[in-house]
Design goal:
Layout: H1 7-10, H2 36-49, H3 53-66, H4 71-81, H5 86-99, H6 104-116, H7 120-133, H8 138-150, H9 154-167, H10 174-184, H11 188-200, H12 205-213, H13 223-231, H14 239-255, H15 259-273, H16 279-292, H17 295-299, E1 311-316, H18 322-330, E2 335-337, H19 343-351, H20 358-366, H21 370-387, E3 393-396, H22 405-411, E4 416-421, H23 424-432, H24 446-466, E5 471-475, H25 476-481, H26 483-493, E6 525-526, H27 540-546, E7 558-559
Parallel strand pairs: 1-3, 1-4, 2-3, 4-5
Antiparallel strand pairs: 6-7
Helix pairs in contact: 2-3, 2-4, 3-4, 4-5, 5-6, 6-7, 6-8, 7-8, 8-9, 8-10, 9-10, 10-11, 11-12, 12-14, 13-14, 14-15, 16-20, 16-24, 23-24, 24-27
């Protein structure tokens, strides 16, 4: 999206050609001068393409200083800030739409920005508006499909993707998007057809391979593995493609129990990604949260927020069983599983909770008044109600909400919080095997991953101390060892009567949009002991970083493929 320029504007930013000589005895044809704003914006686009984002931003701001509300300057600034400051990006795109309400590209970009922050209703509205203005805009059709998937309505995503396929069979987002909708619905074989077509036509091929191998578990070597390994030898392969293909190869090799080879590819994938994580900053941030959210501070704020019991937060490390837990609970007729929502983290960002030095963080948290807490809670409740108006409980299963339990306590003192835990080494190995985004930079190497896990554990122990009895800890091993007993405990914790549908979570209709979407549709079954031992010689940096957390008393367990 960052380099997409509306055609209506691109013609204004083309450099003028040489001035033609006048014909004999004819009046010279005047060449209109290039506006200085256009010159600056053309330079900004060139800088953006060269990844010089701060310089590009400065030029756009110079244009706005001279020509307030210049729509293209606002649009470019929106693309520059997306993924770095999504709230700012939303404001820029909204201003661009306000200046040019009939520009379909501006509506599309605003819709995509809303999609980034999980605001699905306005995202869908702006994408539909873009399509009213330009019905054949393939990017808008694909974005609309993705929004429907995120909103938990993947059945509505099929038609936009199918229409996009009719318009442009070779667009890189079409087949992958259609396959995404089908896998969300559990229609894996149909999804496989589209992904194989993408591979055969070499359309976004590395990502297609990575999606393809996630649709099933391999018991014998597939032809795709040899093809993936050949593609990895392509000297023109870019880092993103290498990351995708290495993860695809690692996943297949893990299925085939060729663990040393699998770990080699997982490590190469992390190297190709090149993600960084400031562990020391994160430690200081955890220190601050522990220091600020004391029992005395929380006691002084009793009565803050909303007394509603509707919100349920399922959280913990990624790959700890959060999706499985959500599916079991959401199989109850009075519970809606909303998936991973960004609403709480957006509220935290607006309040200054994240990425702030200690003193700024303290000031931000202490500035929350009773009225502000109620206003924020009401806005959150409206957000949940839009997804499931009649549900008694609505689950947000964003794992990293474990960082924001203090905020949950201020906004929703009666909310249920389910903390999913899993054997530390198994949990980390499962994380390392997946193609997480840059926001999970701690997953970039085994040593950092283990040290990050220790910070997560330290923060969770603090929350348990300051919210005694509030947080239900659900051990994956306990759940897998006696599914019915632990499921009954979960439903009882939710304050609801038991329903046998919770035992057949794998039959539940609806979408699943996490890495676990294939596995969660399988019943819990008996598996081997401590799967991390297959990688033991390869993961010593992880074990050393985990320290005492790597020690475990359980010698056997039942496993569900969800956390493999």
């Amino acid at each position: 999206m960052n380099n997409r320029l509306p055609p209506a504007w691109s013609k204004h930013l083309k450099a003028p050609g040489p001035k033609a000589s006048p014909l004999p005895k004819a009046k010279p044809i005047p060449v209109p001068p290039v506006r200085s704003d256009d010159m600056l914006l053309r330079m900004a686009l060139e800088l953006q393409q060269a990844k010089k984002l701060s310089e590009a931003q400065e030029l756009c701001l110079r244009v706005l200083a001279r020509t307030p509300n210049h729509p293209l300057a606002l649009y470019i600034l929106g693309t520059l800030t997306l993924n770095h400051d999504d709230e700012m990006s939303l404001r820029y795109f909204a201003r661009a739409v306000g200046e040019e309400p009939r520009n379909p590209y501006f509506h599309l970009s605003l819709g995509e920005a809303y999609l980034k922050v999980s605001e699905y209703s306005p995202a869908i509205r702006h994408m539909q508006h873009a399509l009213e203005l330009k019905p054949d805009l393939v990017e808008a059709l694909c974005a609309l499909g993705l929004a429907y998937i995120g909103f938990g309505k993947p059945e509505l995503a099929l038609r936009p993707y199918e229409k996009a396929l009719e318009i442009n069979r070779d667009h890189p987002r079409v087949r992958a998007g259609l396959a995404n909708a089908l896998t969300s619905l559990g229609r894996m074989e149909e999804a496989t057809v589209y992904l194989k077509e993408a591979v055969e036509r070499r359309i976004a091929m590395p990502a297609a391979y990575n999606d393809l191998v996630q649709t099933r578990k391999f018991t014998e070597e597939p032809a795709e593995l040899a093809s993936i390994l050949i593609e990895l030898r392509n000297p023109k392969l870019d880092p993103d493609g290498a990351q995708q293909l290495h993860h695809a190869a690692g996943k297949v090799l893990n299925d085939l129990q060729r663990y040393e080879d699998a770990m080699y590819h997982f490590k190469k994938a992390k190297q190709a990604a090149g993600y960084k994580f400031d562990l020391e900053f994160y430690r200081r941030w955890v220190d601050s949260m522990i220091d600020i959210f004391s029992p005395e501070m929380l006691a002084a704020r009793a009565g803050y927020g909303s007394p509603s019991e509707v919100p349920v937060f399922v959280l913990g490390m990624p790959r700890s069983g959060t999706t499985l837990t959500e599916q079991i609970c959401a199989s109850h007729p009075d519970v809606h599983g909303a998936g991973e929502l960004s609403k709480l983290s957006r509220t935290a960002n607006a309040l200054g909770f994240l990425n702030r030095p200690a003193e700024d963080l303290r000031q931000s948290i202490m500035s929350i008044t009773p009225d502000l807490s109620r206003t924020l809670a009401e806005a959150h409740m409206s957000y949940l109600s839009e997804r499931a108006p009649g549900a008694l409980r609505v689950i947000d299963k964003r794992p990293h909400n474990f960082e924001l339990i203090g905020l949950i306590g201020l906004l929703f003192p009666n909310a249920r919080i389910i903390h999913c835990r899993r054997d530390a080494i198994d949990n980390c190995v499962s994380c390392f095997a997946l193609n997480f985004t840059e926001s999970h930079g701690y997953n970039s190497d085994l040593s950092t991953l283990g040290l990050y896990y220790r910070e997560y554990d330290r923060l969770m122990r603090h929350w348990d101390r300051v919210f005694p009895g509030r947080i239900f800890e659900s051990s994956y091993e306990t759940l897998a060892g006696d599914q019915e007993a632990q499921s009954r405990r979960l439903v009882d914790y939710l304050g609801l009567p038991w329903d046998n549908a919770c035992l057949r979570f794998f039959d539940k209709d609806g979408s699943v949009n996490t890495f676990s979407r294939w596995q969660v549709r399988q019943p819990i079954y008996t598996s081997s002991v401590k799967r991390w031992k297959n990688y033991e010689s390869e993961i010593q940096p992880l074990i050393q970083s985990l320290g005492d957390l790597a020690e475990t008393k359980n010698e056997s367990r039942l496993e569900h493929p969800l956390t493999r």
